[in-house]
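User: tokens in, sequence out, please.
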């Protein structure tokens, strides 16, 4: 893998495991310095595998520089300390990926929502509010970058029902917040996008249900966690990056435009027809074309 992101400083929140880890390692594979945040620091302390330190080690082994920082994204002071550290050590920030989120223990239980616990509402705090807080506190560092990008990890749940109403409100909020942030950042050359991965074979998804109920293996029919990292790396290097600011980007569609497949050789499909299309906001278009692929 060529060092197309050598010198790039990134923060990926919620990257002990899952999509966040996949993103962080892929950025490191391209030479980036990546700050890995999350609450899990001790192996075995979480039901699922993965710690911030393990992700950081994988980034470094892949050719980048991984820096593990224990952060509870429900605690604003811990988030502030994170970006103070980035300022002290790097002086700027090029790429912020807001991926941190919380899912309740009963999140996958069937609806209606009032038969499940109130913990579902916590994802509005760590999911939506946490993305706002991180971007607010990172703004000064992003303005010092020659090429700044904020990516908010959302999902088709923004426009169709998934899990519960709090989940949908979180994802819809991330989409609209990305558009609004793009208006404020636009004059300073910092792009903001909301990114929709497809169904992904994360540790949680595989633990909950390794098959799809019809004889199909989830790991072979879903996107890998690395795929979203590949999308973000390509988007960051796109010479027409600012043209995408404020938009919702469907990862599978971006991969087709940039000309790459998943790490397993498969070409993940867009789920737009089945799960819904992004909302379009005044003065913007989610149908704008993509430029030629940048070097990756």
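Assistant: Sequence out:
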């Amino acid at each position: 893998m060529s060092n197309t992101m050598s010198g790039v400083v990134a923060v990926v929140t919620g990257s002990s495991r899952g999509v966040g880890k996949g993103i962080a390692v892929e950025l490191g594979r391209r030479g980036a310095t990546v700050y890995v945040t999350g609450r899990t620091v001790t192996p075995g302390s979480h039901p699922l595998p993965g710690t911030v330190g393990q992700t950081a080690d994988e980034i470094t082994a892949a050719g980048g520089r991984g820096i593990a920082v224990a952060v509870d994204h429900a605690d604003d002071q811990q988030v502030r300390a994170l970006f103070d550290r980035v300022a002290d050590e790097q002086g700027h920030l090029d790429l912020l990926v807001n991926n941190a989120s919380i899912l309740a223990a009963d999140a996958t239980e069937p609806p209606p929502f009032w038969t499940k616990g109130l913990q579902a509402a916590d994802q509005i705090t760590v999911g939506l509010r946490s993305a706002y807080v991180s971007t607010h506190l990172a703004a000064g560092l992003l303005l010092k970058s020659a090429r700044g990008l904020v990516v908010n990890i959302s999902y088709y749940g923004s426009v169709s029902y998934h899990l519960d109403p709090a989940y949908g409100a979180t994802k819809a909020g991330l989409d609209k917040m990305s558009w609004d942030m793009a208006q404020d950042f636009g004059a300073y050359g910092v792009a903001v996008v909301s990114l929709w991965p497809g169904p992904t074979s994360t540790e949680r998804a595989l633990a909950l249900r390794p098959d799809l109920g019809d004889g199909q293996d989830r790991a072979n029919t879903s996107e890998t966690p690395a795929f979203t990292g590949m999308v973000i790396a390509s988007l960051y290097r796109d010479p027409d990056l600012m043209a995408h600011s404020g938009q919702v980007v469907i990862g599978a569609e971006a991969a087709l435009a940039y000309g790459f497949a998943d790490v397993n050789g498969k070409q993940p499909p867009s789920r737009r027809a089945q799960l819904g299309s992004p909302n379009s906001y005044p003065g913007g278009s989610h149908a704008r074309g993509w430029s030629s692929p940048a070097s990756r």
